[in-house]
Amino acid sequence: MFGRNQVPGVTAADVSDEAFLLDVREDEEWVAGHAPGAHHVPMHTVPARLDEIPADRDVVVVCRSGGRSAQVTAYLVAMGRDNVRNLDGGMAAWARTGRPMVSEDGSAPQVA
Questions:
Q1: Distance (Å, rounded) from C-alpha 108 to C-alpha 64?
Q2: N or C: which end of the chain has fewer CB within 10 A?
Q3: Distance CA 55, CA 53 (A)
Q4: Which residues contact 54 (CB under 8 A, 6 or more apart)?
């Protein structure tokens, strides 16, 4: 598998509004806070749900800090996807950059 620094990445500030955000965090992390419009596919379910991940548009993979999403990005690249990027710094960087977040339970969104 690729090392974390060998996967293609993108900064939170550079994620386009048209990108498909693939959030691979666990359920409780998702509920606490995520990017509006993101798609929740927990990391362990990605292989079984490949058909839900577009091959014809930019995909940005995100987790809390960038480690798990780097693994998923490397997996997708190994599967022949050239349209995927890891969100450098994950949701923590997303929040620090001031990008919008929502929660699933009505509380103030946070990175869990």
A1: 17
A2: N
A3: 7
A4: 20, 83
Q: Would the pLDDT of 1 be above 60? A: no
Question: Which residues are marked as active site?
Answer: 63
Amino acid at 23: D
Query: Where are the extended beta strands (E) located within the chain?
Result: 9-10, 20-23, 39-40, 59-62, 84-87
Tokens representing 73 are 């990005």
| Long-range CB contacts for residues 39-44, cutoff 8 Å, separation at least 24 | 43/68, 43/71, 43/72
Residues whose CB is less than 8 angstroms from the CB of residue 48 and which lie 6 or more positions away in sequence, other chains included: none
Q: What is the pTM of this model?
A: 0.93
